[in-house]
Specification:
The protein is α+β, with helices and mostly antiparallel strands. The chain has 15 helices and ten strands. A hairpin with a 5-residue loop joins β5 and β6. It is globular, with a radius of gyration of 21 Å.
Length: 338
Protein backbone atom coordinates (compact mmCIF):
# COMPACT_ATOMS: atom_id res chain seq x y z
CA UNK A 1 0.00 0.00 0.00
CA UNK A 2 2.80 2.44 0.86
CA UNK A 3 4.46 1.86 -2.49
CA UNK A 4 1.19 2.63 -4.28
CA UNK A 5 0.73 5.77 -2.18
CA UNK A 6 4.24 6.85 -3.14
CA UNK A 7 3.46 6.18 -6.82
CA UNK A 8 0.60 8.69 -6.79
CA UNK A 9 2.76 11.27 -5.02
CA UNK A 10 2.25 10.97 -1.27
CA UNK A 11 5.24 11.31 1.06
CA UNK A 12 3.74 9.44 4.02
CA UNK A 13 1.22 6.61 4.28
CA UNK A 14 -0.06 4.21 6.93
CA UNK A 15 -3.13 2.29 8.02
CA UNK A 16 -5.43 2.73 11.02
CA UNK A 17 -8.39 0.60 12.04
CA UNK A 18 -11.77 2.19 11.37
CA UNK A 19 -13.02 1.66 14.92
CA UNK A 20 -14.32 4.20 17.41
CA UNK A 21 -12.71 7.56 16.73
CA UNK A 22 -9.57 7.95 18.84
CA UNK A 23 -9.47 11.11 20.97
CA UNK A 24 -13.16 11.88 20.48
CA UNK A 25 -13.72 12.44 24.20
CA UNK A 26 -10.79 14.84 24.24
CA UNK A 27 -12.17 16.67 21.19
CA UNK A 28 -15.66 16.84 22.72
CA UNK A 29 -14.26 18.34 25.92
CA UNK A 30 -12.34 20.91 23.87
CA UNK A 31 -15.54 21.91 22.09
CA UNK A 32 -17.59 22.04 25.29
CA UNK A 33 -15.08 24.41 26.89
CA UNK A 34 -15.62 26.83 23.99
CA UNK A 35 -12.04 26.64 22.69
CA UNK A 36 -13.22 26.38 19.06
CA UNK A 37 -14.39 29.99 19.12
CA UNK A 38 -16.71 30.78 16.21
CA UNK A 39 -15.73 27.76 14.10
CA UNK A 40 -19.23 26.33 13.96
CA UNK A 41 -18.24 23.58 11.53
CA UNK A 42 -16.44 22.05 14.52
CA UNK A 43 -19.24 22.53 17.01
CA UNK A 44 -22.53 21.95 15.14
CA UNK A 45 -24.07 18.58 14.22
CA UNK A 46 -20.81 17.61 12.48
CA UNK A 47 -19.05 17.36 15.84
CA UNK A 48 -20.93 14.14 16.67
CA UNK A 49 -20.20 12.69 13.23
CA UNK A 50 -16.52 12.61 14.17
CA UNK A 51 -17.21 9.92 16.76
CA UNK A 52 -18.01 7.21 14.21
CA UNK A 53 -16.15 6.63 10.96
CA UNK A 54 -18.91 4.35 9.71
CA UNK A 55 -21.24 7.34 9.59
CA UNK A 56 -19.06 8.52 6.72
CA UNK A 57 -18.64 5.13 5.03
CA UNK A 58 -20.92 2.27 6.12
CA UNK A 59 -18.94 -0.90 6.50
CA UNK A 60 -15.60 0.90 6.83
CA UNK A 61 -12.85 -1.36 8.17
CA UNK A 62 -9.56 0.42 7.49
CA UNK A 63 -8.38 3.99 7.02
CA UNK A 64 -5.39 4.74 4.83
CA UNK A 65 -3.87 7.96 6.16
CA UNK A 66 -1.50 9.89 3.90
CA UNK A 67 0.73 12.94 4.12
CA UNK A 68 1.89 15.35 1.43
CA UNK A 69 4.78 17.71 2.18
CA UNK A 70 4.32 21.40 1.31
CA UNK A 71 7.52 22.88 2.75
CA UNK A 72 9.46 25.16 0.38
CA UNK A 73 12.97 26.63 0.32
CA UNK A 74 11.89 30.05 1.56
CA UNK A 75 12.96 31.21 5.06
CA UNK A 76 10.86 30.61 8.14
CA UNK A 77 8.81 33.50 9.50
CA UNK A 78 11.04 33.57 12.57
CA UNK A 79 14.01 34.28 10.29
CA UNK A 80 12.22 36.93 8.22
CA UNK A 81 12.02 40.57 9.29
CA UNK A 82 10.98 42.96 6.55
CA UNK A 83 8.40 45.34 8.06
CA UNK A 84 7.21 46.38 4.60
CA UNK A 85 6.02 42.87 3.78
CA UNK A 86 3.13 40.68 4.83
CA UNK A 87 3.48 37.13 6.10
CA UNK A 88 1.24 34.48 4.57
CA UNK A 89 1.35 31.03 6.16
CA UNK A 90 3.61 28.55 4.39
CA UNK A 91 0.79 26.17 3.51
CA UNK A 92 -1.04 28.88 1.57
CA UNK A 93 1.66 29.98 -0.86
CA UNK A 94 0.65 27.71 -3.71
CA UNK A 95 -2.43 26.06 -5.16
CA UNK A 96 -5.28 25.07 -2.85
CA UNK A 97 -4.32 21.68 -1.46
CA UNK A 98 -7.83 20.26 -1.29
CA UNK A 99 -8.06 19.48 -4.98
CA UNK A 100 -4.48 18.22 -5.15
CA UNK A 101 -4.94 15.73 -2.30
CA UNK A 102 -8.39 14.57 -3.41
CA UNK A 103 -7.07 13.80 -6.89
CA UNK A 104 -4.19 11.75 -5.48
CA UNK A 105 -6.51 9.87 -3.11
CA UNK A 106 -8.75 9.00 -6.04
CA UNK A 107 -5.76 7.67 -7.99
CA UNK A 108 -4.72 5.60 -4.97
CA UNK A 109 -8.20 4.10 -4.69
CA UNK A 110 -8.21 3.24 -8.38
CA UNK A 111 -4.87 1.45 -8.06
CA UNK A 112 -6.08 -0.54 -5.06
CA UNK A 113 -9.32 -1.50 -6.82
CA UNK A 114 -7.24 -3.13 -9.54
CA UNK A 115 -6.08 -5.55 -6.83
CA UNK A 116 -9.34 -6.01 -4.92
CA UNK A 117 -12.82 -4.49 -5.20
CA UNK A 118 -13.97 -2.39 -2.23
CA UNK A 119 -15.97 0.67 -1.24
CA UNK A 120 -14.10 3.86 -0.45
CA UNK A 121 -14.39 7.53 0.36
CA UNK A 122 -11.68 10.18 -0.04
CA UNK A 123 -11.45 12.63 2.87
CA UNK A 124 -9.58 15.86 3.49
CA UNK A 125 -9.87 18.43 6.25
CA UNK A 126 -13.35 19.47 5.11
CA UNK A 127 -14.67 16.05 6.20
CA UNK A 128 -15.86 15.73 9.84
CA UNK A 129 -13.05 13.40 10.85
CA UNK A 130 -10.37 13.51 13.58
CA UNK A 131 -7.65 13.23 10.99
CA UNK A 132 -4.61 13.95 13.15
CA UNK A 133 -5.69 11.24 15.59
CA UNK A 134 -6.17 8.79 12.73
CA UNK A 135 -2.82 9.74 11.22
CA UNK A 136 -1.15 9.09 14.57
CA UNK A 137 -2.85 5.70 14.83
CA UNK A 138 -1.61 4.96 11.30
CA UNK A 139 1.99 5.62 12.36
CA UNK A 140 2.50 8.89 10.47
CA UNK A 141 3.64 10.78 13.56
CA UNK A 142 2.75 11.97 17.03
CA UNK A 143 0.63 14.98 17.96
CA UNK A 144 3.00 17.60 19.32
CA UNK A 145 2.47 20.17 22.03
CA UNK A 146 1.60 22.64 19.26
CA UNK A 147 -1.18 20.18 18.25
CA UNK A 148 0.44 19.56 14.85
CA UNK A 149 1.26 16.04 13.69
CA UNK A 150 5.05 15.60 13.74
CA UNK A 151 6.97 12.93 11.85
CA UNK A 152 10.44 12.13 13.15
CA UNK A 153 12.03 12.15 9.68
CA UNK A 154 9.86 14.70 7.85
CA UNK A 155 8.90 17.26 10.48
CA UNK A 156 5.39 18.72 10.42
CA UNK A 157 5.08 20.57 7.11
CA UNK A 158 2.59 18.22 5.46
CA UNK A 159 -1.08 18.06 4.59
CA UNK A 160 -3.15 15.08 5.65
CA UNK A 161 -5.67 13.04 3.70
CA UNK A 162 -7.60 9.85 4.39
CA UNK A 163 -9.00 7.06 2.28
CA UNK A 164 -11.81 5.32 4.16
CA UNK A 165 -12.13 1.75 2.90
CA UNK A 166 -14.06 -1.48 3.47
CA UNK A 167 -10.78 -3.37 3.12
CA UNK A 168 -9.34 -5.40 5.98
CA UNK A 169 -5.79 -4.06 6.21
CA UNK A 170 -3.14 -4.54 8.87
CA UNK A 171 -2.97 -1.42 11.01
CA UNK A 172 0.29 0.32 11.81
CA UNK A 173 1.38 1.29 15.31
CA UNK A 174 1.38 4.87 16.57
CA UNK A 175 4.90 6.18 17.23
CA UNK A 176 5.98 7.42 20.67
CA UNK A 177 5.67 11.08 21.59
CA UNK A 178 9.10 12.61 21.08
CA UNK A 179 8.46 16.19 22.22
CA UNK A 180 9.96 15.38 25.60
CA UNK A 181 10.52 18.41 27.81
CA UNK A 182 10.80 20.82 24.86
CA UNK A 183 8.52 23.85 25.18
CA UNK A 184 9.75 26.01 22.30
CA UNK A 185 6.38 26.19 20.56
CA UNK A 186 4.64 27.15 23.81
CA UNK A 187 7.23 29.80 24.62
CA UNK A 188 7.27 31.27 21.11
CA UNK A 189 3.51 31.68 20.62
CA UNK A 190 2.89 35.47 20.68
CA UNK A 191 -0.65 35.08 22.02
CA UNK A 192 -0.08 32.17 24.46
CA UNK A 193 -2.60 30.03 22.55
CA UNK A 194 -1.03 26.67 23.53
CA UNK A 195 -2.37 25.81 26.96
CA UNK A 196 -2.35 22.82 29.36
CA UNK A 197 -5.20 20.37 28.71
CA UNK A 198 -7.33 19.03 31.58
CA UNK A 199 -6.66 15.45 30.46
CA UNK A 200 -2.90 16.03 30.33
CA UNK A 201 -0.62 17.34 27.62
CA UNK A 202 -1.47 20.51 25.74
CA UNK A 203 -4.21 21.88 23.52
CA UNK A 204 -4.88 24.92 21.38
CA UNK A 205 -7.19 27.69 22.52
CA UNK A 206 -8.26 28.70 19.02
CA UNK A 207 -9.70 31.94 20.37
CA UNK A 208 -6.14 33.13 20.99
CA UNK A 209 -4.50 31.76 17.84
CA UNK A 210 -3.21 34.11 15.14
CA UNK A 211 -4.41 31.69 12.46
CA UNK A 212 -7.91 31.89 13.94
CA UNK A 213 -7.84 35.69 14.06
CA UNK A 214 -6.63 36.05 10.46
CA UNK A 215 -8.58 33.23 8.79
CA UNK A 216 -11.59 32.02 10.75
CA UNK A 217 -12.75 35.11 12.66
CA UNK A 218 -15.13 37.17 10.54
CA UNK A 219 -15.60 40.11 12.86
CA UNK A 220 -13.34 42.46 14.77
CA UNK A 221 -10.00 41.18 16.07
CA UNK A 222 -9.82 41.78 19.85
CA UNK A 223 -7.82 44.96 20.40
CA UNK A 224 -5.66 43.36 23.09
CA UNK A 225 -4.32 40.81 20.59
CA UNK A 226 -3.74 42.97 17.51
CA UNK A 227 -0.15 43.97 18.29
CA UNK A 228 0.85 40.33 18.81
CA UNK A 229 -0.30 39.48 15.28
CA UNK A 230 2.73 41.29 13.87
CA UNK A 231 3.02 41.01 10.07
CA UNK A 232 0.69 38.02 9.72
CA UNK A 233 -2.11 38.58 7.21
CA UNK A 234 -3.09 34.93 6.73
CA UNK A 235 -2.26 32.23 9.22
CA UNK A 236 0.82 31.77 11.38
CA UNK A 237 3.76 29.35 11.29
CA UNK A 238 5.65 30.31 14.44
CA UNK A 239 4.94 27.18 16.50
CA UNK A 240 6.20 25.04 13.61
CA UNK A 241 9.09 27.34 12.69
CA UNK A 242 10.67 26.92 16.13
CA UNK A 243 10.09 23.15 16.35
CA UNK A 244 13.43 21.28 16.41
CA UNK A 245 11.92 18.50 14.27
CA UNK A 246 11.58 20.99 11.40
CA UNK A 247 15.26 21.92 11.32
CA UNK A 248 15.93 19.46 8.54
CA UNK A 249 12.42 19.14 7.16
CA UNK A 250 12.24 17.93 3.58
CA UNK A 251 10.99 20.19 0.82
CA UNK A 252 8.03 19.43 -1.37
CA UNK A 253 8.25 17.81 -4.80
CA UNK A 254 4.72 19.01 -5.60
CA UNK A 255 4.99 21.80 -8.19
CA UNK A 256 1.51 23.10 -7.41
CA UNK A 257 2.72 24.08 -3.93
CA UNK A 258 5.51 26.34 -5.22
CA UNK A 259 5.32 29.82 -3.70
CA UNK A 260 3.23 32.24 -5.71
CA UNK A 261 2.85 35.12 -3.24
CA UNK A 262 5.69 34.88 -0.73
CA UNK A 263 5.73 37.80 1.73
CA UNK A 264 3.99 40.29 -0.60
CA UNK A 265 4.42 44.05 0.00
CA UNK A 266 1.84 45.34 2.44
CA UNK A 267 1.26 48.51 0.43
CA UNK A 268 0.39 46.48 -2.67
CA UNK A 269 -1.98 44.30 -0.66
CA UNK A 270 -3.69 47.36 0.81
CA UNK A 271 -4.31 48.73 -2.70
CA UNK A 272 -6.11 45.62 -3.95
CA UNK A 273 -9.76 45.99 -4.82
CA UNK A 274 -12.03 42.97 -4.44
CA UNK A 275 -11.71 41.88 -8.07
CA UNK A 276 -7.91 42.00 -7.92
CA UNK A 277 -7.90 40.14 -4.61
CA UNK A 278 -9.98 37.35 -6.11
CA UNK A 279 -7.78 37.18 -9.20
CA UNK A 280 -4.53 37.18 -7.22
CA UNK A 281 -5.57 34.49 -4.75
CA UNK A 282 -7.91 32.43 -6.89
CA UNK A 283 -7.56 28.71 -6.14
CA UNK A 284 -5.29 29.35 -3.14
CA UNK A 285 -6.12 28.94 0.55
CA UNK A 286 -5.88 32.73 1.05
CA UNK A 287 -9.28 33.19 -0.60
CA UNK A 288 -10.81 31.65 2.55
CA UNK A 289 -10.19 34.89 4.47
CA UNK A 290 -12.38 36.75 1.96
CA UNK A 291 -11.56 40.24 0.78
CA UNK A 292 -12.79 42.18 3.81
CA UNK A 293 -11.08 39.86 6.28
CA UNK A 294 -7.83 39.97 4.34
CA UNK A 295 -7.87 43.78 4.15
CA UNK A 296 -8.60 43.91 7.89
CA UNK A 297 -5.49 41.79 8.47
CA UNK A 298 -3.36 43.92 6.15
CA UNK A 299 -4.12 47.15 8.00
CA UNK A 300 -3.37 45.50 11.34
CA UNK A 301 0.02 44.40 9.97
CA UNK A 302 0.64 47.94 8.73
CA UNK A 303 -0.10 49.30 12.18
CA UNK A 304 2.33 46.79 13.68
CA UNK A 305 5.10 47.70 11.22
CA UNK A 306 5.97 51.04 12.83
CA UNK A 307 6.46 52.53 9.34
CA UNK A 308 5.13 56.05 8.82
CA UNK A 309 5.07 55.46 5.04
CA UNK A 310 1.88 53.48 5.60
CA UNK A 311 -0.04 56.49 6.96
CA UNK A 312 -1.41 57.51 3.56
CA UNK A 313 -2.88 54.12 2.56
CA UNK A 314 -4.21 53.69 6.10
CA UNK A 315 -5.90 57.11 6.02
CA UNK A 316 -7.60 56.10 2.81
CA UNK A 317 -8.78 52.79 4.31
CA UNK A 318 -9.93 54.54 7.48
CA UNK A 319 -12.56 56.16 5.24
CA UNK A 320 -13.63 52.81 3.82
CA UNK A 321 -17.34 52.17 3.52
CA UNK A 322 -16.67 48.81 5.16
CA UNK A 323 -16.91 49.46 8.92
CA UNK A 324 -14.68 46.49 9.79
CA UNK A 325 -11.83 47.70 7.59
CA UNK A 326 -12.28 51.32 8.65
CA UNK A 327 -12.17 50.49 12.37
CA UNK A 328 -8.99 48.44 12.08
CA UNK A 329 -7.35 51.09 9.86
CA UNK A 330 -8.07 53.77 12.48
CA UNK A 331 -6.48 51.53 15.13
CA UNK A 332 -3.44 51.06 12.89
CA UNK A 333 -3.05 54.82 12.46
CA UNK A 334 -3.10 55.25 16.23
CA UNK A 335 -0.32 52.66 16.51
CA UNK A 336 1.84 54.64 14.08
CA UNK A 337 1.26 57.83 16.07
CA UNK A 338 2.37 56.28 19.36
Amino acid sequence: MRSLAAEVGFDLAGVAAAGPAPDFDRFQGWVERGLAGEMRYLTDHRAAVRSNIESLLPGARSVIAVGLIYNGPEPYSTDFSDPERAWISRYAWGEDYHGVIRAKLTKLAEKLIEIEAFQWRACIDTTPLLERSLARQAGLGWIGKNTCLINQQQGSWFFLGELLTTLELTANRPPPDRCGTCSRCIDACPTAAIIPAPAGGFELDARLCISYFTIELRGSIPVEHRSAIGPHVFGCDICQDVCPWNRRARQTHELSFAAGEFAPPLERMAALDEANFRALFRNTPVSRAKYTGFLRNVVVAMGNSGLLKFRRPLEKLADSRDPLVAEHAKWALQQLQN
